[in-house]
User: Fold these one by one.
Assistant:
Number 1:
Amino acid sequence: MNHLAIDNLTFAYTPKRPTLKDVTLKIPVDSWTLLYGASGSGKSTLMRLLAGLLPKYGGRILQENIELPNGLTVAMMFQDPGMQFALDTPQHELEFALENLQLPANEMPARIEHALKFCGIEHLRDRQLATMSGGEQQRAALAVLVAMDTDILLLDEPFASIDNHNRTLLIQQLTLLQQKYHKTIIVADHDLHGYRGLAKQVIRFENQRAELLDAAASDALLKSADQLAATVHHVKLPTASDQPILTLKNLTIEHGDQKLILANDFSFFKNQTTLLTGATGTGKSSLFKAITHLAAYQGTIVYNGQDSQKIKPRRYAQQVGYVFQHAVDQFLSVTVKEELALSLKKGRNPYFDEEHLTAALKLLGLSELQERVVYSLSGGQQKKLQLLLMLMMGQPVLLLDEPFSGLDLHSLHNVVDLIKASQKVYPQTMIIISHQLEGLEKLIDRHVKLADCQLSYREEF
């Protein structure tokens, strides 16, 4: 058998509504296959079924027949790579994975070196995984799969936190892996640019079904994605009338001996939405952690004219909110309904009265998920819930770290519409780290780029 066969598959997390229904597919081995569709449409679910993680860890199969070619091994990279790490550094993760495969000890060093080099993280081998950026963690997780020399690689949003330059490099490396070593690569991605000419087949997930696109439709879809990704959007530079709300004075942020950010006198401005970009690992998330006093820094961070260190921690947390890169780190309750109740109780954003909250839940596709455990939601559903909860909290300043990762373009547009509607009633200052740039043109007022340790305003993104 030269393909993965899925015949009449139906799967449900809850009895009332299957996530996948009557899905029949043939996925060829030794090729690229691209999965796309709205958040929560079943892409990650299918991958977990192929990897053997479901229904062991949740849900139930109502009917199914999944056949893998004899002898082929399968490994999966999760949408949130931090969830699959067991140890503290990439080196230890790689050693642990190879020990579990019972690889002879004398073969491990070469295999580890190859994987680290392949993913461009030789310099990170001994870094604490917990201190890495999301993009660095994604590359570390990919290195484990490469080292394992798995036949079938299931990659769930593998580039969600990676800048476009490194995304292109990794796609090139994966292409080499597929063509030279005859791997089967199945990728779920909301961002479809860069796959034209690579993906042998494209599968669309919609309305509980999975549909194989024909060659002409696939090419048109991927061509359009490439054109959209190449679009340049223009924004204005700050003006003399802009009012600073966060100012970095003589600020130095370091990681070990490496300087990440040097800012002598740099301001973000009140009631503006500022996009913050920069290559993976340059220190964008570290800046957010410094601003929220979750990481050490040298110098002064001024909030509304006052040294932020002189503001009582509780009061400062009520002024500056932080939307974490990984949504699950933000949740405090078990179900969607409980999370909403908590934010309603603690939140201060007047926009979210009963009518607007009901409309927001419908817009984000969360209305029917209120009894679901938050950890059983798809990555995109978790992101939408997280953003809604933090908007409800209503801090005057909101720092958002990759809030759009894992969102399809339709979901992203809905999120942008919600933010804009909320801001009309309750203006907030937002600083957004995002490698996802398509669809943000209606939202972004200013663009700041971090490069060579320096922050600077740019006129386009």
Number 2:
Amino acid sequence: MKMTKREKMIWSLLAGVLVLLFLLSSTDLIIKEKKTEIYPISIVIGDTTDDYYTNFRKGVDKAADEYNVDVNFITLYEKGDVTEQMELLKREIDDGAKAAVLVPLKQQECSTILDGMVLSSPLIVMGTIFPGDWAMSGISQDYQETGKMLGEAIARENTPDKPVLVFSEGLEYGYNKEVYKSLLAALSQAGFHVQLYEKYRNGASGAPAAESEDDFHRTIEENAVSGSGEEILVALDVQSLDQVADVIAGSPVYGKDTPNLYGFGSTTKILNQMDRGVIKGLVTTNQFDAGYLSIVKAVEAIEKRGDRDQIVLESYYIEKDDLKETRFEKILYPIE
């Protein structure tokens, strides 16, 4: 049966419509695919290396995968340069970072410099939230509680006739001053005599501080290797703890008259030193969670969700036997 001219026109028109619909759908003009937005977020730390941020970065990477974030991890060129850190922070935001995470080198100086800056993106502070409008969230430990926690542990395990020697990059670095004040209060109350040594001294009046890295290292050796073995050594920050532990582990008298070493923070290397018996006790926190939350809060700030808040992570005092406990294994050796 032959089609009429009208039928042919109708079928041709239908075929044309189908072709047109196909072309429109294939070019996203009708069925638009939802595009996933990628958020560029910069993390600016207060060190020239990220060696001490392994677990933190694992948490960052996990959150970045889940929240479609492109992370730029920024280290300093010059150690101890607060001005450079804040310039890098400003540069990252000016270059397009939708949010920034700051690990302040010296919290007071960073806060002061921020007073004179205008940031066009939200800021997450790894520590106590700064006053003012720049920071949306702070993620920290309870620094007073961590110092008190370690001081009480030292007092439980040692007699007050033993001198306590405290080593630090400097009280102005990070939140060392807050930790030291509560540590000192706990030890003084228990009758201990405390002596402070700073690698980079900054106005610590009356403290017998080391003036240079060589002097600092020499002071560690004199007390960790050549001392009586009765000394109690404490490192306020992970950098100093790493250095003191290396000196003790490399000592020719290691294992004989080794002083008790305590500290704050943890890395795989430091935990291995504890497992070997070089380090007696540590106060640490969940760095994986810290890294993860930094990205979560940054994304919330970008999307204008959530309120300005301060997150306080739990701190733990651990010794060698705790390394094998399941709950601490998950904190200290997180799986990506």
Number 3:
Amino acid sequence: MENAAHWRESLTVFLDALHQKKALDHRHVLIIGASTSEVIGRNIGSAGSEEVAEELFQEFASFRDKTGVHLAFQGCEHINRAITVERETADRLHLDPVSAVPHPRAGGAMASRAYRKMKDPVVVEHIQADAGIDIGDTFIGMHMKHVAVPVRTSIDAIGSAHVTMAVSRPKLIGGERAKYSLE
């Protein structure tokens, strides 16, 4: 695809900004919501693209290999936004797999591609991620840990898809006497 290199380059900018805000590693989960339709300028859910999904997956896999972060791919509304992860991730987080296999018409092209490319994939109903990237306004917030903090970068889109990102931080609890550091 003629835009593939540009999509991957843009995704790299986003992932680098996310990693700069929060140093992601093997202890963390990255939730990914991606509308491949939106990337190619179509409405979400209308024109899923296996080619776009493959290009994005390769970049996410490279980021995982570099950082050790666990990848979690949100499916579409037709599977209740269930999450595709590797079984190792589900076991580590004590998540119960559900009986679903994402495909392009129920789950979306991105989750479908991830399921086919991941090592021993399973689908789980919920996850609480440490960071997230939302490509095409897929609404990943339901799968983020509290408290989500927006991350900004120099660009705001991959192809035609609007992109938002967030990292989580611990809640600041207590009253006026509470302290949040040893100083």
